Amino acid sequence: MTVPAEVPPVRAEVGLLALLQENGDLLLDEGLSVARELQLYRFALAEMRTKLAVLQDEITLSDDYNPIEHISARIKTPRSIAEKLRRRGHPLTLESMQANLDDLAGMRVICTFVSDVYRLLKVMDRHPDVAILTVKDYIAAPKPNGYRGLHAIVETPVHLAEASHPVRVEIQFRTIAMDFWASLEHKTYYKYDKTVPDALLRELTEAAEHAHELDLRMEAIHRQIRGGDDRAGG
Ligand code: GTP
Ligand code: MG
After folding, report:
1. Can you tell me the mean pLDDT for 33-38?
2. Which of 80, 186, 189, 190 to mutate to test the pocket of ligand 1 (most atoms within 8 A of CB)?
3. Which of the two residues, 114 and 2, has the higher pLDDT score?
4. Residue 104 pLDDT level (bands cut at 50, 70, 90)
5. Beta strand extents in the chain (DSSP E only)
6. 211 CA to middle of ligand 2, Å?
7. What are the tens digits of pLDDT across the range 55-92?
8. Which end of the chain is more exposed for a tag (fewer CB within 10 A), N or C?
9. How far is the CA of 190 from the centre of ligand 1 (A)?
10. Smallest-distance ligand from the CA of 138
11. What is the pLDDT of residues 140-199, one digit of tens each?
């Protein structure tokens, strides 16, 4: 069998290049380089997913308890990259995209309880291949609309045949309740095209507080059950 010296992932790139176009025009300059760069972010997401899956399995085995409900991941679409760069007045180039956007690769880690969010963050902080660059804790300090979640920008190396590249990934940690709320709030904004009636906004903010209260109560019950387990020696 003959192996070509260089095997570029042509099909994936062509697919991405098609996405980079709108009515035949490139959404971003340097389309092919952007497509290549986005591959790197895709690899970074795969790396982070594996790391989190290992941590999840380890905790599940050692504690007989699973701290992660589910994980989703996405690469920012070229359209959304172009829109965000334009909105912030940055050039639509590869260099500008790398320098100005922290959420090209994004993950959502949905946890069972609030304490799981902090536990996972702490464990990731100790990981030799993960550097936590910034943390925005909207659980300790929710947004005025009631939004809660903990956002971390992390950097992880992607090892390719020729070289290793540090890649940034935005990870949003939420509980199921926080995610439930954020998803409804997002839909509301979409439906009203960002002009949501005041009464509805107030209701959403109030619902966010109820969601948080539920989080606290569920965790308290969970602790009671675990305490019961321990006393029973289980
Ligand atoms: P971005 O331009 O969105 O990156 O703003 P930022 O850099 O200030 O980031 P921030 O950490 O505040 O929020 C980033 C992401 O968190 C958003 O793209 C959403 O996915 C999520 N998010 C933040 N605030 C809200 C909110 O009020 N409601 C919902 N549904 N999601 C939010
Ligand atoms: Mg951001």
Report:
1. 80
2. 186
3. 114
4. very high
5. 21-22, 25-26, 68-75, 105-111, 131-137, 150-159, 164-175
6. 24
7. 999 999 999 889 999 999 999 988 888 889 989 999 88
8. N
9. 14
10. 1
11. 999 999 999 999 999 999 999 999 999 999 999 999 999 999 999 999 988 898 788 999
Q: For helices 114-126 and 31-63, what crossing angle results, to 10°? A: 110
On average, the pLDDT of the chain sits at 87
Nearest by Cα to 158 from 43, 48, 68: 43
Distance CA 200, CA 186 (A): 13
| Count of C-beta atoms within a 10 Å radius of residue 182 | 19
Q: How far apart are CA 228 and CA 141, in angstroms?
A: 32
Instruction: Give the Cα-Cα-Cα angle 154, 67, 53 (nearest 5 degrees).
Output: 55
What is the spatial distance between Cα 161 and Cα 172, in angstroms, rounded to a whole number? 30
Q: Is the pLDDT of residue 128 over 80?
A: yes
CA dist 215 and 205 (Å) reads: 15
- CA end-to-end span of the chain: 57
For position 82, what pLDDT does the model report?
A: 85
Closest ligand, as measured to the CA of 80? 1
Length of the chain: 234
Q: On the CB side of 86, how many CA atoms lie within 13 Å of its CA? A: 9
Q: Which of 65, 137, 83, 77 is nearest to 106 (CA)?
A: 77
Rounded Cα–Cα distance for residues 34 and 49 (Å): 23
51-83 residues labelled b (16+ CB within 10 A) or e (exposed): bbeebbeebeeeeeeebbeebebebbebeebbe
